[in-house]
Amino acid sequence: MSAIDDMLHFNKGVVRLYPGIESKAPPRKRLAIVACMDARIVPATHLGIQVGDAHIIRNAGGRVAEAIRSLALSQVLLGTEEVAVIHHTDCGLLAPSEDAVRAAFLARGIDPGGLDLLTFSDLDRSLLDDIALYRSSPLLRQDIPVRGLIFDVATSRLSEVDAGALGR
Amino acid sequence: MSAIDDMLHFNKGVVRLYPGIESKAPPRKRLAIVACMDARIVPATHLGIQVGDAHIIRNAGGRVAEAIRSLALSQVLLGTEEVAVIHHTDCGLLAPSEDAVRAAFLARGIDPGGLDLLTFSDLDRSLLDDIALYRSSPLLRQDIPVRGLIFDVATSRLSEVDAGALGR
To answer: pTM of this prediction?
Structure first.
């Protein structure tokens, strides 16, 4: 059975257990999370995010550069008022250089061309860079908290990065 | 307490319950999911996706146009071999026109400028368009299944869209 068939099968049982939420109301926690797509992060399990709680935006690395459209829509259409950016230890994008990751593409016969892979070489720095990028966007609310967090995949621990360190 | 403080507090209890996964191995199900950021979709609850199972890429609408970098990295670096694209009923991007959503930005004093908001006016069509976009990308694996699914937020039911309908 393919993983997708597996998922459809699992979902059949769910329909009887959980009533849906029809309303397009703002998320209960008025929170938007930007996190890495990594399989080892499960917001429901690790962060207590339940149905209706928060918008979850995820991409490779949890990069804000690729989350601006979604964050803007989250804020303008659905009134979220807090942003958490979550990067994590042992991330696939945590590489000595963008070229190192680019080489993996070329080895597969895929030319990434001008695609910015958004790799990074320092975890704290990538978070601070992403918060700075958020803070420079005219599309996003600047009157709300935007906080950077690191998820440790080896311990499941979430910790906050001091945004005051941005100027270091 | 802010939603982020709430999340950090919840996580303190988790650290004792769940051992982390240190290895950057491929996701157990070798699956990558592209889904909307909507708060009413929780992959763990609705799709049975547990820690280590799958890459989860999420953005406003669950649009493939914004997921190509992440999908490529998922396939090249971490060997995923199946792709599920999940859009849903009552989506904020399901609008009569892009201008209708653009008006909500302008009403807030935000000029979205040239930003493509990636709205859509037909749910089946948006999925088929996204699968077609995937199939046209030289960055992505074309030898694996890519399937389109609709999540009904009112019933929690996941159903598949017939990709054969693409030519209609």
So the answer is: 0.95
Nearest-Cα distance to chain A for B72, in Å, is 9
Residue A79 one-letter amino acid: G
For residue A153, give the nearest of B7, B20, B28 by CB distance: B20
Contacts of residue A127, defined as CB under 8 A and 6 or more positions apart, other chains included, come to: A85, A87, A148, A149, A150, A161
The reply to whether residue B92 touches residue A73, judged by beta carbons under 8 angstroms, is yes
Q: Do A55 and B38 touch (CB under 8 A)?
A: yes
- At A15 the pLDDT is 85
**Residue A1 in contact with partner chain B when CB distance is under 8 A:** no
Report ipTM (2 d.p.). Answer: 0.95
B1 touches chain A (CB under 8 A): no
Sort strands B82-88 and A157-161 into parallel, antiparallel or unpaired.
unpaired
Is B101 domain-assigned?
A: yes
Question: Structurally, how many domains does chain B consist of?
Answer: 1
Q: What's the pLDDT band for A162 if we cut at 50, 70, 90?
A: confident
- Residue at A85 is within a domain: yes
Question: Cα–Cα distance between B122 and B94 in angstroms, integer?
Answer: 7
Residue A18, pLDDT > 80, answer no
Q: Does residue B34 lie within any of the structural domains?
A: yes
Question: What is the per-residue pLDDT for A120?
Answer: 95
Name the residue range of residue B44's domain.
23-167
Contacts of B92 in chain A (CB under 8 A): 24, 73, 77-78
The CATH number linked to B55 is 3.40.1050.10
Which residues in B lie closer than 8 A to residue A145 (C-beta atoms)? 2, 4
Residues of chain B with pLDDT under 50: 167-168
Q: What is the DSSP letter of B44?
A: I
Distance from CA of A166 to the nearest CA of B (A): 20
Q: How confident is the model at residue A164 (pLDDT cuts 50, 70, 90)?
A: low
A106, part of any domain: yes
Q: What distance in Å separates the CA atoms of residue A167 and residue A154, rounded to the nearest whole number? A: 29
